[in-house]
Design brief:
heterotrimer, A mainly alpha (309), B alpha/beta (241), C mainly alpha (307), A: 309 residues, mainly alpha, ABC transporter involved in vitamin B12 uptake, BtuC, B: 241 residues, alpha/beta, six-stranded mixed sheet, four-stranded antiparallel sheet, binds adenosine-5'-triphosphate, binds magnesium ion
């Protein structure tokens, strides 16, 4: 029984991360865009849905849609400014937006509750199911449904003509431009769509935990989602989802171990060590196995793209 | 007599499994000007880049004055005496004309270091423009600077990739006349050219590269008359399309 | 008014130094290094350790301040040691991580790798030193009043702050001479422009890359020590400066040393003048606004040479 409770709790988090990782996979795996502000877009979604459902009393479903819309609008503005030039400017700009969102969350007390965040975020269906295991399982089913829907939708998008153009752009911008497709528009679309999924992930998180605070959206979150994608392997949705489960597993187990092993006074240092370990893991996988565990097998080489023209 | 530069059955390319050079061979005797001709995409640039150490050579050898330099890293080639002027982007646009030359001179051992005054004597324009950022030079001036940059390292063999590209006929004449002077100073020259006529006019011998292999090699004067020359250009063009 | 200017110049000095290092590595190594901020932090902390060591070795265990400053010569020695160690750290990270990714031609992966390396470095530091703020000296400094209160609000500045501004100028001038007068400097600029041509011209690009890491990390360490001297030494020191560093480097135009310096001072001044308008808590957002503005208006920066 306890195992079931713990398992559903763990899987719920893992699936929420999977939604974010799917969004990042669309951006990095399929469009070659590096978003270093994942935490920022997740925060936008989480705060948007939390505010809409608490302050305005909207139903949760509308909150989630609002979360996606808010994250999408932010992504559109950022993408418009940053996708014009060098691709790494996007990394810097998204990093910046995450920093700014963190500042706003901390300091716009009236709106975000400042460092204390927002409490009592409604848990959907809890009126019927209570707050126990039954609710956990139901929410897990709901999140799994979202993961499935996102996966299915992404697979269809990516397999279609839109996805083919996107991959061609990633492989060789010059070749793609000569195809006559305005590369920038496709990348912006992929970026916005990916950020909407991250925003949705944030909303799922907010309504699962029931309270949010700025410290839930620190850069380490960005880093975790990246770790998931890189370990799982970018370019395939399976990689994103499997990576989410695996890295979240490693994260919770190593966190638990460090908590058990270290004395109370050393806990903060233990948490730091945990991030170091995951950082080394990412680096090692980038070096040793750049395609991750389930990454895209055959990349379209630039010559294949040329042949296709 | 050992050739100044010998390329022997070179196979190589940019990406594994996609050979661009398919067994190309070529020898340049000391003091010679050899023209390397061939249709677009034949692999001429790739061949000289491979000799200069910029493109991986999978098999085959490069000899400079009889010494095997196949595995010598690119930045050591200059010290060995092999100079290279690439087809495009062959100057440092963010450095001044003078800095371009100073840098090239400083990177070779003292006994190879050419005098800047000699370069300026050969290319008087450059002396006048020496303070200018090289990016502001005209096409002809750039080409002169690129050649001067390579010469200041006192190469025994100089490879040039289409030095006439984009120049007016008059400027082409000037560049080629300078190359003639360079050869008379004792430098062996391998000249990649699209401009067949101009190249055959100053070359002693020529080779035609098609699909990564030399097809036709001979004295420049003979090749100029050879009906097969045009055929190779045309034929390859048709095959490629 | 004048006081804001002075504060902006002090912060701008730190940003300028860090941004110069960033712009060098950006243009020569060809990727946005998110680890640059951590080199600042590591430099600041390594100087704490080195200072303790130097003070202990030279006997007495106390640092005698020189003249009007809050610190003694020991801190300058410690800064040099910290710069050398930080350079070593950068070389180590390059050897372990970046060099291998470069060799595979996976240039874009470098950005993500540097992001991971930055987090690991920051947390490793936190693991080693803890999170409590550190100081080089506990001396209280009397600020000098340069301009009386009734002229534009007056201006007070500490000798340390003046020294930071002055030394920044000296370091940047030295770097400028290195880049324009020496073969190494010209080779670095040549490599930034065109690595393949640089190799053809005889530049040992691997050596240039090492030199770039050494210079970039040493500058970061000096910036970190300056930041620690005029403020606190905390594990978040460099991370919080990363956005201003990028804004300054892009504002100045990637690869331009004077551009990065000017960008650093502009960002520093913008931050300090934003305080009375938006409040101190949003200070860090200013750099982001500068960044967005420059991306929209002049994406190549003020002195950018090429797109
Ligand atoms: N950097 C590169 N990466 C991959 N393939 C390349 C690269 N440069 C050239 N190629 C390919 O190598 C082949 C030969 O090109 P190369 O430039 O050597 O031809 P060339 O004979 O010099 O032609 P041109 O007369 O147009 O200069 C072409 O098919 C070209 O597409
Ligand atoms: Mg060519």
């Amino acid at each position: 029984m306890e195992l079931l409770a713990y398992g559903s709790f763990f899987l719920c988090f893992a699936s929420i991360f999977a939604v974010m990782a799917l969004g990042l996979n669309l951006q990095w795996g399929f469009a070659g865009l590096f978003n270093v502000g994942v935490a920022g877009f997740v925060a936008i979604g989480a705060y948007a849905s939390a505010l809409l459902t608490t302050s305005l009393g909207w139903p949760v479903a509308l909150g989630w849609i609002g979360a996606m819309a808010a994250a999408g609008i932010a992504a559109f503005i950022v993408g418009l400014a940053a996708l014009r030039l060098r691709e790494d400017y996007l990394a810097i700009t998204t990093f910046g937006i995450a920093v700014v969102i963190q500042l706003v969350a901390l300091n716009a007390q009236a709106l975000t509750g400042g460092p204390f965040g927002i409490q009592s975020i409604p848990k959907p269906l809890s009126a019927w199911l209570g707050a126990g295991l039954a609710w956990n399982l139901a929410y897990l089913a709901l999140v799994l449904g979202v993961v499935g829907l996102a996966w299915w939708g992404l697979e269809r998008l990516v397999a279609g003509p839109w996805g083919r153009v996107l991959r061609a752009i990633r492989e060789d911008e010059a070749a793609a431009a000569s195809l006559g497709k305005p590369a920038r528009r496709y990348r912006l679309q992929a970026f916005v769509l990916g950020c909407m999924l991250m925003g949705l992930g944030g909303a799922l998180y907010a309504h699962f935990v029931g309270y949010i605070a700025p410290e839930d959206f620190l850069p380490v979150l960005t880093f975790q989602v990246w770790a998931m994608l890189i370990v799982g392997g970018s370019g395939r949705n399976l990689g994103a989802v499997a990576g989410a489960v695996l890295v979240w597993g490693i994260w919770t187990v190593s966190g638990g171990l460090l908590r058990d092993l270290l004395p109370q006074a050393e806990q903060a240092r233990g948490a730091a060590l945990q991030v170091v370990l995951i950082g080394v893991l990412i680096a090692a996988i980038l070096v040793a196995r750049p395609r991750g565990l389930f990454g895209e097998r055959a990349t379209v080489s630039r010559h294949a793209a040329e042949d296709a023209t | 007599m050992t050739p100044a530069l010998e390329l022997s059955s070179i196979e190589g390319g940019y990406e594994p499994g996609l050979p661009i050079l398919r067994g190309a061979s070529l020898a340049v005797a000391p003091g010679e000007i050899v023209a390397l001709l061939g249709p677009n995409g034949a692999g001429k640039s790739t061949l000289v880049k491979a000799a200069a150490g910029l493109v991986p050579i999978w098999s085959g050898q490069v000899f400079l004055n009889g010494r095997d330099i196949t595995r010598t890293p690119a930045h050591r080639m200059v010290q060995e005496g092999l100079g290279f002027v690439p087809q495009t982007e062959n100057i440092f646009a963010n450095l001044s004309v003078l800095e371009n030359l100073q840098l090239a001179a400083a990177l070779v051992p003292k006994d190879r270091r050419g005098e800047l005054s000699k370069m300026f004597a050969l290319f008087p324009d450059l002396e006048r423009l020496r303070k200018l950022p090289a990016g502001r030079l005209s096409g002809g001036q750039r080409q002169m600077l690129a050649v001067a940059r390579a010469l200041v390292a006192s190469p025994s063999v100089l490879m040039l990739d289409e030095p006439s590209a984009g120049l007016s006929p008059k400027l082409i004449g000037v560049v080629f006349e300078r190359l003639q002077a360079v050869r008379e100073a004792g430098v062996t020259i391998l000249l990649v050219e699209q401009n067949v006529k101009a190249a055959l006019a100053i070359a002693d011998r020529a080779a035609v590269l098609v699909e990564g292999r030399e097809r036709l090699v001979g004295a420049a004067a003979d090749l100029a008359q050879d009906p097969r020359l045009a055929g190779l250009y045309l034929g390859a063009g048709l095959e490629a399309a | 008014m004048l006081q804001l200017l002075a504060d902006g110049l002090v912060v701008g000095s730190v940003i300028a130094l860090g941004a110069v290092g960033l712009t060098l590595t950006y243009s020569i190594l060809r990727f946005a290094n998110f680890g640059q901020g951590e080199f600042l932090t590591w430099g600041a902390y390594l100087a704490v350790t080195a200072l303790g060591f130097v003070v202990a070795v030279t006997g007495g265990g106390v640092m005698q301040p020189i003249g009007p400053f809050s610190f003694g010569w020991e801190l300058l020695v410690a800064m040099v040691i910290a710069a050398a160690l930080t350079a070593g750290l950068a070389l180590l990270v390059d050897w372990l991580l970046f060099q291998r990714l470069r060799a595979r031609g996976a240039a874009i992966t470098l950005v993500i790798a540097s992001f991971g390396a930055a987090l690991a470095l920051r947390n490793l530091l936190q693991f080693l030193y803890g999170t409590l703020p550190e100081y080089y000296t506990r001396e209280i400094q009397i600020a000098i009043r340069l301009v009386p209160r009734d002229v534009l609000g007056g201006l007070r500045i500490t000798p340390d702050q003046l020294l930071v501004i002055g030394m920044t100028g000296a370091v940047v001038l030295g770097l400028h001479l290195l880049l324009t007068r020496t073969t190494l400097g010209r080779a670095m600029r040549a490599t930034a422009m065109n690595p393949a041509l640089a190799r053809v011209a005889g530049v040992d690009v691997a050596a240039v890359i090492r030199a770039t890491w050494i210079i970039g990390a040493a500058l970061a360490a000096v910036a970190g020590v300056f930041a620690g001297l005029v403020g606190q030494i905390r594990p978040g020191l460099g991370f919080e400066l990363l956005l201003p560093l990028f804004a300054a480097a892009i504002l100045g135009g990637i690869g331009s040393v004077w551009g990065a310096v000017l960008g650093g001072f502009i960002v520093g001044l913008a931050e300090s003048f934003s305080v009375p308008i938006f409040g101190a808590e949003y200070r860090a957002a200013t750099a982001f606004l500068v960044l967005i503005a420059i991306l929209l208006l002049r994406p190549n920066g003020l002195f950018g040479e090429k797109p």
